Amino acid sequence: MADLIFYSNPMSRARIARWMLEEVGAPYETVLLDYGTTMKDADYLAVNPMGKVPAIKHGDTVVTEAAAICAYLADAFPEANLAPPHGDRRRGPYYRWMFFAAGPVESAVTGKALGLLAPRDKAMMAGYGTFEDVMNALEGAVAQGPYICGDQFTAADVYVGAQIGWGLQFGTIDKRPAFEAYFARLRERPAAVRANQLDDEAMAHVQRPQMPQPAE
């Protein structure tokens, strides 16, 4: 058994963790799980009680949540140079924008996709405020370029870039020039290409989730 185990389904946010693992370059074992069955089995619930992917197990350490996995792997494998060194002033933007994407961006984009954005008169109650505020802040983070931390590509770019890429693909993030230019720089990275190929191949080995049927 490998020292690093990756629990995944290619139709999920596990694609973010796959990309990060490919950037790290360390060997890992992939365990594919199906929605509603193996993802909810007792064996996997012992890894992640939420019964969701992604998750990784590194030795005896379990990490869930895609942003946490990206941050953990960057620190666990410093030779990959995927995080600014501790004490470096770029550590602030690195954490700031990775977790901005995990918090306000994820919430706002999901809310938009579901038609559940907070009304403007209640925006103060939502952690993301308004969708427009989130998009404007995100644009400012990536417009300076080429990466979140200047010239250094980091785990923050994996997470932020994946969120922007999915949003552009599914129409939940505005097609602003800064977003398109930023993601264009990321999607051609060899690790990103490998990760997509591996996940596309894995699609043949998992069951498609049963989607709820509309009421008649």
What does this structure look like?
- The protein is an alpha+beta fold.
- It folds into 2 domains: about 5-80, Glutaredoxin (3-Layer(aba) Sandwich); about 90-195, Glutathione S-transferase Yfyf (Class Pi), Chain A, domain 2, CATH 1.20.1050.10.
- Helices cover about 50% and strands about 10% of the residues.
- It is built from 8 helices and 4 strands; from the N terminus they run E-H-E-H-E-E-H-H-H-H-H-H.
- The protein has a 4-stranded mixed β-sheet with strand order 2-1-3-4, covered by helices on one side.
- Helix 1 (about 15-25) links the parallel strand 1 and strand 2 (about 30).
- Helix 1 runs antiparallel to helix 6 (about 155-170), helix 4 packs antiparallel against helix 5 and helix 6 packs across helix 7.
- It is globular.
- The relative contact order is 0.15.
- The model is unreliable at about 210-215 (pLDDT under 50).
Instruction: Quickly name the level 1 CATH class of the largest domain.
Output: Mainly Alpha
Strand percent estimate:
5-15%
Radius of gyration: 18 Å
Shape: globular
In whole angstroms, how far apart are the ends? Answer: 49 Å
CATH topology of the largest domain: Glutathione S-transferase Yfyf (Class Pi), Chain A, domain 2
Helix-strand blueprint:
Layout: E1 4-8, H1 14-24, E2 29-32, H2 42-45, E3 55-58, E4 61-64, H3 66-76, H4 91-114, H5 131-143, H6 155-170, H7 177-187, H8 190-202
Parallel strand pairs: 1-2
Antiparallel strand pairs: 1-3, 3-4
Helix pairs in contact: 1-3, 1-6, 1-8, 3-6, 4-5, 4-6, 6-7
In short:
With 216 residues, this protein is an alpha+beta fold. The chain has helices spanning 14-24, 42-45, 66-76, 91-114, 131-143, 155-170, 177-187, 190-202, and strands at 4-8, 29-32, 55-58, 61-64. Helix 1 (14-24) packs antiparallel against helix 6 (155-170).
